[in-house]
Amino acid sequence: MKSPAKPSRLLSLLLPALLLAACSNQNAPAPAEPAATPASSTPSAEAQAAAASSAAAAGAATAGPDATAAPADAATTAATAPAAAIPGLVAGTDYAVIPGGQPFEPRNGKVEVVEVFGYVCPACARLQPLFSAWKKKLPADVRVTYVPAAFGREWVPYAHAFYAADAMGLVDRSHDAVFHAIHIEQSLPGEGKEPDEQAIAKFYGKYGVDPKVFADAMHSFTIDAKLARAKQFMVDSGVEGTPTLIVDGKYRVLGKSYEDVLRITDALIAQERATGP
Questions:
Q1: CA torsion angle 260 268 33 36 (round to 10)
Q2: Fewer CB atoms inside 10 Å of the end CB: C or N, the chain?
Q3: Relative orientation angle of helices 122-136 and 258-275, to the nearest 10 degrees
Q4: What is the per-residue pLDDT for 70?
Q5: Secondary structure of 121-157 in the HEC alphabet?
Q6: Does any domain span residue 81?
Q7: pLDDT per residue over 195-217, tens digit each?
């Protein structure tokens, strides 16, 4: 009978294998760490139900330093640098790439800028004068598309009203006025107040539409479908709050101030115009 192998002999046999394993682990790339995403506040269940807006930290994935946070279940998208750098911008700081992102509506050769917004959102109301003036200076091959968010019970009727007004061709005339009525005049209910669909319908009556017809239109099957599509776009785009700007479905604008957001958006538009559809 052969005697068992001595410990020294076993060590000499195992040592090459151990060294090989150690080299493999040393040469293997370290696990990729997720891109750092600036913190943004997320409302509690009660706050969501009340659609209360909260201040987001600087650099949140929103258009502005005090944007309203989306519900906690909104999907987030990591900021990934594109194959070619965009002049003057830093991926993950100025913008986030949306993997597989697509424009919300067919571009027809135009660059699309989506604003995800809410009429009751105070941050959206503060951005609106700057955004409206910026929009007027856009070249003809850039199109702005509004996508209303419905984060809570106070937001929902205004999201319905937006699409009803859009179907009736009233948005261009009424969009700024709705913000003014909620946040300046306080003639329409804002956050912390009971939603009032009849008051909203009566407001749009100033633009030549029968308030009853408008109220009925707010609950049409077509508008319900549009709201569902808007929600899916927000999830796919990693929208975490309002206001948020998205360029051509590819880039979610970040930024540290409203002016910074518009500067970044201009650069992303220039990138899309240069690369073509």
A1: 20
A2: N
A3: 50
A4: 66
A5: CHHHHHHHHHHHHHHHCCCCCEEEEEEECCCCCCCHH
A6: yes
A7: 999 999 999 999 999 999 999 99
Asked whether residue 233 is domain-assigned, the answer is yes
Look at the block and give the residue holding tokens 């992102």: 101
The whole-model pTM stands at 0.74
Torsion of CA 92, 95, 101, 107, to 10 degrees: -170
| Lowest mean pLDDT, pick from 78-87, 149-158, 248-257 | 78-87
Q: 104-118 as b/e, with b when 16 or more CB fall inside 10 Å? A: beebeebbbbbbbbb
Mean pLDDT of 246-274: 97
Range of the domain at 104: 43-275
Domain with residue 215: its CATH number is 3.40.30.10
Residue showing tokens 């068992």: 4
Domain assignment present for residue 183? The answer is: yes
Phi, psi for residue 114 in degrees, rounded to 5: -95, 135
Instruction: Enter the tokens of residue 147.
Output: 């996508």
- DSSP symbols for 185-221: I--S--TTS---HHHHHHHHGGGT--HHHHHHHTT-H
Task: Rounding to the nearest 10 degrees, give the CA dihedral for residues 127, 233, 200, 211.
Answer: 130
C-alpha dihedral sign at 161, 163, 168, 169: positive
Total domain count, the chain: 1
Predicted confidence (pLDDT) per residue in 31-69, tens digit:
333 333 333 333 333 333 333 333 333 333 344 556 676
